[in-house]
TrEMBL record:
[2Fe-2S] cluster 1 binds at residues 122, 127, 130. [2Fe-2S] cluster 2 binds at residues 162, 165, 197, 199. Residues 248-435 form the FAD-binding PCMH-type domain. The lineage of its organism: Eukaryota, Metazoa, Spiralia, Lophotrochozoa, Platyhelminthes. The active site is at 1265 (proton acceptor). Binds 2 [2Fe-2S] clusters. Binds 1 Mo-molybdopterin (Mo-MPT) cofactor per subunit. This is FAD-binding PCMH-type domain-containing protein. Belongs to the xanthine dehydrogenase family. Mo-molybdopterin binds at residues 791, 822, 932, 1089.
Amino acid sequence: MSSSTLTAPLQPRLRLRLSHLVYFPCAYGGLPYPVGCGKSGLGPRVFVSRKRRQLVCVCLCPASAALPNCSVQQSMEISTHQEPFIYVNDKRYEITRDCDPEMSLNDFLRDTLNLKGTKVMCREAGCGCCTVCAVYKHPATGEIESKPVNSASLADGFGSQCGYCSPGFVMSAYSQLRDNPKATKLEVEHFFDGNICRCTGYRPILDSMKSFACDAGKAGGCLEDLERGCCRSQVGKVPTSGVAAIARGWKGQKFYNPGTLKELLTLLGRLRNDNYRLVFGNTSSGVFKEDAIADHYVNIRNVPELYKIEETEASLEIGSNLTLHDLLVLFARVANDNKQAGRAYLGQFSRHLQQVANQAVRRNGCWAGNLMLKLAHPEFPSDLFVLMAASGAIVKVADSIDGGAAVQEYTMTDFLRQDMRGRVVTSALLPLSGGVGQRFGSFKITPRALNAHAYLNAAFNVSVDSANGYTVTDRPRIVYGGVCDKFNHAVKTENYLQNKSLIDQETVNGAIKVLESELNPAEEATWSSPQHRRSLASNLLYKFILGVASAALPAADSSGAQVFVRRVQSAEQDFEQEPSELPSAPLGRACPKPEARGQTAGEAQYVNDAPSRSNELFGAFVLAQEAPAKLKGFGTEEAEQVPGYDRLITAKDLEGRYDNNYVSALIPPQFAQTEEILVTTEVRYAGQPLAIVLAKSQRAADRAAALVTVDLEQTGEPITSVAEAVAKASVVMEPPVETVGSEDVAKELDSQPCRIEGQIVVNEQAHFFMESLTASVTPCEEGLLISVPHQWADALVMTLRRVLRRPANELRVVTPRIGGGFGGKLIMSDLIACATCVAADIAQQPVRMYLTLASNMQLAMKRPGMLLRYKGAVNAEGKLRAADWEINNEVGYTVNMQTSSSTPWTWGYRCPNYSFRIRHMRTDKPESTFVRGPGPAVSSLANLLLMDHLAFEAGMDPIEFKFNNLYKDGDGDNFQRMWSELLQLADIEARRKEIEEFNKANTFRKRGLDMTAVSYQIGYDRGRPSQVYLTVQGSDGSVTLTHSGAEMGQGLGVKCAQAVAAKLNIDLTLIKLKPTDSHVTPNNDVTGGSSTSEWNCQAAVNAAEQINQRLETLRAANPQDSWPALVGKAVSAGICLAAMGVFTADNAGRKAGRYCSTGVGAVEAEVDVLTGLYEIRRVDITMDVGRSINPGVDIGQIEGAFVMGMGYYLMERTVYDADSGRNLTDSTWEYKVPQAADTPRDFRVHILKSTSNPAAAMSTKAIGEPPICLAPLCVTAIKRAVEAYREARGKPRRHLTFDMPLTPERYCKPRI
């Protein structure tokens, strides 16, 4: 094997490709910006879809009520015509006056215009997949700027895996590069603070996009001037409607579009006592969804008087329609242009605003709307309120009673007491007169780096005399958010600090004592604990004081005032490639996926992107809101009023006709427990489907389902956690104890000189795939055509055969692609597919269902929660001798999925004697299921913490202890080699010394580093075939390839294509991948366990070999013929050019698995012990992947798995209501997965060179799941930092234990 080692990032030259752009009238100076268009309700949502090399031009008159959503772009421009209409590809579409004001832009573009490039997921502005680009004409200045529409392609940089999120990333980059074409690499990274990718780990996306940065240092992306198709001539002044309604909704809702402040106040006078809603960006509807429902909607975006900006010596006046982004830019300019002391605080104000929401929300939401949220929801931790209150801002309010003749002025605290009916915020005054002693600071402590609401936020404003011991000269302002609905100002602490010195320790201690006495944090299930927020409030005050008095303090202490400043991510990918004579680089080469370009351009079609049929119905579940309970009945009176409502299907409609049981064919019949499609009587968990609403659109179905009333009688208290299940002995199954080595492990434990025991509680994890659960079913002459993203098409056929009582040959399951799976699109997709099939069969019409994020999270199976108890022992030489585990595994309401798989307990370390017992615990929740790395993800954490505990008890360095207990290379793995190589590659010893010096120099910031190894067993013993069907077209030699797996971003398709190209000796571009089809590759195996790619590759090779054998004689007779000429002659000679390749896997006599996928990693973390915030500074990973079929794909899998593991171990948390059992973390507001800002700042991945794996098909190793097992290093690296702080503070030496996920609340407590 020749070695071609690449150490630079996989960073291709990118081309911004043609897409669609939307033009709207807006508040933002005519410049383009990203818009999330998936939320329901009014407000700007911009974008349309794209076809390759086709610009869709949309011209819109914004007098209309509600508008489209899109993903790949379109040009939408405003007409001067007074009636609402749009142009799409120069074709005019009227917007009817009775259009629904609650329709989102996403619904309009996808459903009305059938433009599916823009995706839909959360409808909360929390994931970014519906981001579009908008150019608005400014209502006040009349300025407009429109440019050609382009779309960035991530394809060549391996930045698109499942691809569902890719158009949103493209649009975020495009729109902001238009706004800031000279963006730096750091600024480009900030473009994506509202975008989620669950597959890639973000690194390849960031690298690809940073090629457009002005400081990229080399040629990167290029822009194509694609002006054609834009209807720029249609752009004119935004029409308004005065006080007349311009649209009416299905329940009589009216939409108004005033054009002056006078008209607005006239309207407010009329509507004063009605249920009305002022609409600007409507960004709040993603969080407070009920607030979006009103009888009257008043668009204030086109009121020019509300865009005022006036700067004087004493104050800065800001109009209420300025967006958060407008403020961010304005405050930075004012602070930088005039260095006077009274203006400097605006710089911190601006920096803080960068942490509020995300780019799309900041550029669409106005600051006054944020304050109104605080007024309506006093518990809301509004950053705007905290900052403005601390600055001493004054809010101006106009009242409709006097037509705004007299504007009232209020302090921020007084504003919260106002009745705002018939009134509107017009502006605010921010003081600019602070003296040289003014100090302003603010903090926001969040569950993740960006796009998250605060555990606690705070702002401080004091004036001090630094020459007089930093004495506080005036009454300070100390403001907090997130404490409770009644507490904002720390009045007692403000009074206490006046005229006192901030460098006097007694003063500081007294201030903290007073503060803690006046804080009474509220107890809320989804918030951090009151104790945490009280401690955090004190720490933030202390942190601020450190900053104010930093010049008078030792440098080690003053560094505690610093906050994490995000650095540009750097990365390295180190691998070797196989030599190839073919330019398309088949086996062993880093080839981008053929479908990646279509994904990034929004052209790839997912199940829910298929055009709707004229007679198609759409389904939505009615879900139980509490459990356990008995179902008594339904009420549909209000649901029936929804336009498009068709019917309600309940369990009674299934009786006698269908088997109301979707239990999977995965489950052995002797163990299978009934899993009802629709509940008959007994409700087992909150979120369980009770009925199906059918309607003529998905939006109507969702709306009607929410209006169905359900009569439930709760029958008991729900068990909602594994710890509670253990406490109540809720055991449903206890398999025999498994033992390795000595039969008496307890004796081995007791015989060793060093013994430990402990306990770990691990929370569950949601798949959180970007494409929600969905299915589309069409009755046809052959039976039913079922299009569904599913990881095992044949298992679904077997389940449907039983449910529908029809033969399998009448059921055709097609999976075009999956927008993220991770094990979640097996049993859960069975439920959706069964429900949709039953509905289609009853209605005898096509039926489609696409779950909302909330419904998905409510009914979704998840990775099980576990309570683990362990014992371990080492001998005098520090060698691990024995371990014992008791695993309490949460199964949910049924044990079905846990009977189909044990919990693999793998080791990277040699332990000659160990035992583990599993107890399956019942809870009143959805059943647990497979999530990426099921079993090993938690066992790797448990084993690492066990080793960490043993090293502590033995008094040994943790890294040395683990190295001494590694498997030897002669045992069949490369642990010793990988460990030694990574020590050198990652410069571990030098960095540990640097960390030691850093920790000595910083009192409140500490760093830690740790290493570990992982061994992940890959099982081959599944018994069903992997199949690939190849056909060669004799006319041109092109090849179609249909594999039996499910492509969900892991590169299965491209690897199969590479295998075929290599075997047939043809160019990769001749091969076209086709959707998985149960009638083409029947009786297939599940896509899971990471090994499906290699199995299908082997099947592809087998199919290609069949074709080669048939061509052998002909090729020998025509050695000079090209491939097209050869296959053309083959057809004439009657040779069959279609072949089915089959590979059936087995473990070759091995008990646990065919082989182990192994790796070694190192993680360095830094912790701010005053706030609990952390930064993963650097990650180094070496993985043994055997002979990589595609190292570019494999590295993407390594990075993606690791970052998903970071979410599992550090931030992803589910919370259930103790009374109803309902999942309270069912939105992007509460359930936080990692985003780009949370990823390692330095991310280095090495693929072990010169290695192979003869035990596996294709001599490769599975890689999709094993790297998640290295992510627990983030936990122990943070732990090292906390230990360093405790040691420096003289705390007692003891072993620290934490439950998972390791949120700041759990490791940053007073006890550390």
